[in-house]
Design brief:
- Helix 1 crosses helix 4, helix 3 runs antiparallel to helix 4 and helix 4 packs antiparallel against helix 5.
- It is built from seven helices and no strands.
- The N and C termini lie far apart (about 40 Å).
- By secondary structure, the protein is mainly alpha-helical.
Length: about 170
């Protein structure tokens, strides 16, 4: 009987890992699809710019706190160049030969939201390094990366060594 319970428990652990891995892209796609229908392009571009600015500020602060380095003009220009690349890509998509405005709008929205997610996730990762004792920042980061599902699984005693290693690796990267 104990062997059966152990096997069922191991099966459930692997099943939950598979569901979490499968759910991440679906969750991100669902949020992006909803936001695409709600927000106008001007608001999306403002959010992209604001999240890029937040990412730059958090990166500068994290570099100063963690590495004890002063402001790096090279990193700043790299961030500005990345934002410029984003603007060029959005401009090119807007100039494409697609006759349907909704297709262009949807492409710009999806691309922009993916970039915003990356900027905000990186900002929260840097914020965790700057303020390691702030639990709400760690919680927001876990929600953005959907690592919170691993935390829930861990609270039910279903965490495996592999899951813990993956979770630690994702936190340190």
């Amino acid at each position: 009987m104990d062997e059966l319970l152990y096997r069922v428990s191991e099966y459930l652990k692997s099943l939950i890992d598979a569901v979490v891995a499968w759910a991440k892209p679906i969750f991100y796609s669902l949020i992006t699809a909803i936001a695409t229908q709600i927000a106008p392009i001007k608001a999306v571009l403002f959010v992209v710019f604001a999240s890029a600015l937040l990412n730059i500020c958090m990166g500068i602060k994290a570099d100063k706190v963690i590495n004890k380095k002063d402001f790096s003009i090279c990193k700043f220009w790299d961030a500005i160049i990345q934002l410029g690349y984003l603007a060029i890509i959005i401009y090119i998509v807007n100039l494409t030969a697609w006759d349907d405005e909704s297709i262009r709008s949807t492409c710009i929205h999806w691309f922009s939201y993916i970039i915003v997610w990356g900027y905000i996730t990186n900002s929260l990762k840097n914020a965790k390094k700057i303020w390691p004792n702030q639990k709400h920042i760690a919680l927001l980061y876990e929600i953005m990366t959907i690592d919170i599902l691993y935390r829930i699984k861990e609270n039910f005693g279903m965490s495996t060594k592999d899951t813990k290693k993956e979770q630690e690796n994702s936190r340190t990267e």
